[in-house]
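pasting for ref
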Amino acid sequence: MAIYDSRLAMIVEAIGRYYSIVSKEKFMSILAFGDDNAIDDFGKVNLDPTPEMHKLIRTFTDATEGGVVMSVNFQALKDILSDPSATSESKEEMKAMVQRLYRYVGEPTTFKAIWDDADTVCSQISVTDMCKIKPGTDGSKDGMINGAFGSPSKFTPNLCAIEILNPKLVPAARDSGAAGLFMNCVPTLEFSRLQPYLDITLVSPNSGLSDDGRIQTIGIMQHILGQSQPQSDVDKDIASAVDPTAVQGRLESNPTYQW
């Protein structure tokens, strides 16, 4: 039983990163901080990410996947790198990790106001200078992009960017490993059996036949007969047929339909 348990653990460790069995922070940490030997043959992982790596990766994913204001995200990174319980050596190691991952591009002066060591993780390029954004004639920054970078609003929004330095972590390469594994594991015989499948249901507010009996909606009968007047009762029934499951909750109150 012990042998079975160890083999099962090896299998879970080998393929778990492709099926969300391990945490996303661990998988991203392996990509971000692991070298070429981090993932060995048959998916063996040679890197055990530290809690510090997980924290940095969490701030990175918050920044790249959206949902977090950039100034708040930067404040979270500053709290991690300024943790009073951490040693100076560990702080320098974490700064070096961030410098390998990404850097902020926004307003250097505002980043500097939030954190004195912002230069280590921020670009010195100003978005307002790069885009030639200027205050109003009265000198007011109200309604100006990055006019209130530390406290943005809908009226005075922020414009910021994340410069990703590790090509393995750019959005274009996201989940590419799992996709490559899946596509390469499909046998060629199964690929030969594949065929396109398209199922479209169109819901129109108009009835299938107009007042003068002509076909007026997209369907098989319009494809065959065009916008002509069906002569037989069967053609009329097909042209005016309605799929009750497709229109449920949408067109029951439309008096032009005949149920």
